[in-house]
Amino acid sequence: MQIDQQIADIQTIVDDVLKMARDKGATQAEASMSKIEGIAVSSRLREVENVEFTNDGGLGISVYVGKRKGSASTADLSKSALAKTVEKAVDIARYTSEDPCSGLADAELMATEFPDLDLYHPTELDTEKAIAMAIETEAAALDFDPRITNSDGASYNANFGMRVYGNTHGINAGYPSSRYSLSCMVIGSDNDDMQRDYAYSVDRQPGLLSSPQAVGQEAAENTVSRLGARKIDTANVPIIMHRDLAGSFFGHYVAAISGGNLYRRSSFLLDKLGAQVFPEWLSIEEKPHMKAALASSSFDNEGVATSDMTIVDEGRLATYLYTTYSARKLQTRTNGHAGGIHNWIIGNTGHSDTDLLSEMGTGLLVTELMGQGVNIVTGDYSRGAAGYWVENGVIQYPVHEVTIAGNLKDMFSGIRAIGAQQDVRGSVHTGSVLIDNMRVAGN
């Protein structure tokens, strides 16, 4: 069946469910349905370890009876199962407490235009090809250097999906998407020292994945470069957070400006709209309609239209991120962030990776973070780390078993430079980040 017809069939199911909800007494209702088909193959030591096919789907519905909400879901799409699911949701709503902030987003905020964002690039789910990709990737890593002595495996994944959302304001829209990934993790040994590292590639289009040879060799090179890691003395030094990690670093900013944390008064950026948070040269733009990007969408999880936004304007906190519920709690309006962010483009200073090392001079290049020691209420930051010690702009040796600590307020304001080479494998597109001063705890 063609993908357009599958989406049309799901839209019909969503329409039917919404009508059932109204007939059962719901004053408002919303329904969403997704279907995923895919293959996942993993190998270990050049042998197939696992082959898994996925063909899942399910429908969820939320109904509102006045200001009371009820939700239910089902994987059974028969008429009787759908009717029972709606009935359960309405029954739940009748027994829940009233919440003045509950309900659908305002009707005028619903998406009405649905451009093709180039998110769907299907290919045949060929088991033999998938197995060959995984094994070839792992073999490239194992053959790279004799110090690569073991493997945690390689994997190839291909997923095709579709998403449909509808509500009683009239929106009923859907789109297909695809996602491919190739990854590898290996273990290296040198005398008594053992280290592991990885590499991966992900894209909407299979032809744009890095080759198995490139992914495997990168995993092996990363692993070998960590052999001989040392501890270092405790000091206050600048750090560079490698671009592979920098997206998660800005993820703390996402949490701090999210409406849920704001109305709970659990963010260190509460009541800071318009305040200088980053250096004046740094701006962050959100681009939800980027072609083929991994976080593109013309509407959020509540059907609200997405649009280009300035998130940080010359270092100033330009906007908070609201869902409908959090916006009502804070007496404002949603801005299309139910379900997350949509392609943040982090500004940069044009530095190459080599330039960043020179700009830092002496300090720590961080390539791995461990633990979850981040407090969004206070901004306190403390995480285990590994990476490379740098002197006079030149990497000297690998480092492990250290902790980097500071406060996110100081870390954000202390960003000295951001590299021009961006990691675009997620919802945040950013280069490596040079931060002026952090406590690096070692010996």
TrEMBL record:
The record's InterPro entries line, in alphabetical order, gives: Metalloprtase-TldD/E_C, Metalloprtase-TldD/E_cen_dom, Metalloprtase-TldD/E_N, PmbA, TldD/PmbA_N, TldD/PmbA_sf
Task: Name a GO molecular-function annotation.
Answer: metallopeptidase activity
Q: Which residues form the Metalloprotease TldD/E C-terminal domain?
A: 235-442
Q: Which terms does the UniProt entry file under GO BP?
A: proteolysis
| Gene3D superfamilies listed in its UniProt record | PmbA/TldD superfamily (3.30.2290.10)
GO terms under cellular component: cytosol
Recorded family membership: Belongs to the peptidase U62 family.
Q: What is this protein called?
A: Peptidase PMbA
> What is the protein's species of origin?
Alteromonas halophila
Its taxonomic placement starts with: Bacteria, Pseudomonadati, Pseudomonadota, Gammaproteobacteria, Alteromonadales
